[in-house]
Amino acid sequence: MDFVRVIKNSNDLEKIIDIPEKLRNRKVEVIVLPYTDKEEVEQVGKKSLRGALSKYKNEFLRARESDAWSKAVVDKYENR
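The structure corresponding to this sequence follows.
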């Protein structure tokens, strides 16, 4: 990403931007970055993971899923 970074006297910038009182008559660092519309960033970065793991699904195991926890508890604690 291209950017510009310069040190300037804040008095030189008063006609361009609003300078807070605490920064007046001081040297300040000015960083200029390209503007990216927030909506563009959201659209570009928005990806769906839906179906990403579908190649690992096993319909046989899915049918046994509902009672898996109760069977695991019985197996672990049955003889205590």
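Residues 26 and 52 are 54 Å apart (CA to CA).
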